[in-house]
Amino acid sequence: MCLPNRRDVGAGPCACPADGIMPNYLGIDVGSITTKVVVLDEGNQLLAKAYIRNNGRPIEAVQQGLERALAQAGEDISIDGVATTGSARQLAAYLVGADIVKNEITAHSIAVIDLYPDAKTIIEIGGQDSKVIVLRNGIVVDFGMNTVCAAGTGSFLDQQAARLGVSIDTFGTLALRADHPVRIAGRCTVFAETDMIHKQQIGHSMEDIVGGLCDSLVTNYLNNVCRGKEILSPVVFQGGVAANQGIRKALEKELGVPLIIPDHFDVMGAIGAARLLKKARPSRTRFRGFRSLRELHSTRGFECNDCENHCEVIQLLVRHQVVACWGDLCEKHRMQLAEGSRQ
After folding, report:
1. Is the dihedral of CA 168, 170, 176, 178 positive or negative?
2. What total of structural domains would you count in the chain?
3. Cis ω before 13 (30° cut-off from 0)
4. Which of 3, 48, 241, 294 is the most buried (most CB within 10 A)?
5. 225 and 134, same structural domain?
6. Cβ–Cβ under 8 Å, residues 252 and 166
7. 154 and 234 in one domain?
């Protein structure tokens, strides 16, 4: 397939295999806490991978992720399509010029189905939200998400690790050394924190408290996100929290089955987005190029009161000029912007 308009650093006139240049696909997953960027080649080999904490600045995180991906893949890398996913997928799509935009459930599912076709359950726990996806014969038949309470997410662990004065990197190792994990109320972060302080005050060891916190997160996740879901093996565990050995152990104990941890568990959403893009095979890409992301970007929002919807409209500005907007259910502001650009 000829892709004559590749727009990237070092891109030539055509991506035809006859030229000896194989297509490469960019997947971007922008979540509440982290941004993930991957580059896959035609053979699904991972050429670049970046995992960036947003720190409340998703635009800068996308820019950093692309810079790291470019550094890993090489300055002459050609990009033949871009896909975005995650809670900020629309923002990322406008920033980079995405060819397709997919929700997290679809992206995570396709990544697992392609790698583990027999998988029946996907457990994904990220920084601010968590989800379960039920698969049967390679098809999504049910799913659940938790986007309100942080007690079943990675931010819960980050907060408690900071309070205990331990790094999140050693948190899981401490949990594995627990002899008698204490019971900690895990219905919400406030109750858990209060209970944890009480357990410290009465003399429980650090290891047992950390082990109890891991058990608490897993219990909260299973009781809320997985309520009413049929969790069958094989079970794939992914997301940033899959790096935590304490959570892995607690999940395996509660479920009674071993977990499959993908090699790139932390960027599976981005991988799924790139794989979906590869299947779609756009004939022309809208990717604006790595260097274009170095432009000055910002966002601003306002509430539209023209109807009873009271939409929260977000505008993307490049060098102080509005270039895109979203959030308007009737698409009024988007149409006005499109009309203005044609004049």
Report:
1. negative
2. 3
3. no
4. 241
5. yes
6. no
7. yes
The pairing of strands 121-125 and 235-238 is: parallel
Residue (of 269, 248, 254, 318) closest to 133 by Cα position: 269
Q: Could you report the per-residue pLDDT of 132-141, keeping only the tens digit for each?
A: 999 999 999 9
Residue 133: exposed, middle, or buried by beta-carbon count in 10 A (0-12, 13-18, 19+)?
A: buried
pLDDT digits (tens, 9 = 90+) for 225-252: 898 999 999 999 999 889 889 999 999 9
Tokens of 317: 């500005």
The answer to whether residue 60 sits within a structural domain is yes
Q: What is the DSSP letter of 231?
A: -
Q: Mean pLDDT across the chain, nearest whole number?
A: 83
Cα atoms found within 13 Å of the Cα of residue 176, Cβ hemisphere only: 11
Token digits of residue 102:
């997919």
The enclosing H or E element of 171 equals: helix 168-176
Mean pLDDT of 2-17: 38
Predicted local distance difference test score (pLDDT) of residue 292? 66
Q: For 14-70, how does the pLDDT look when each residue is reduced to its tens digit (9 = 90+)?
A: 344 445 567 899 999 998 889 999 999 999 999 999 999 888 888 889 989 999 999
Residues whose CB is less than 8 angstroms from the CB of residue 86 and which lie 6 or more positions away in sequence, other chains included = 28, 29, 30, 31, 35, 36, 92, 104, 107, 269
- Written as six digits, the tokens of 41 are 């080649």
CATH number at residue 177: 3.30.420.40
Whether residue 74 is contained in a domain is answered as: yes
231 and 302 share one domain: no
pTM: 0.80
More confidently predicted of 288 and 13: 288
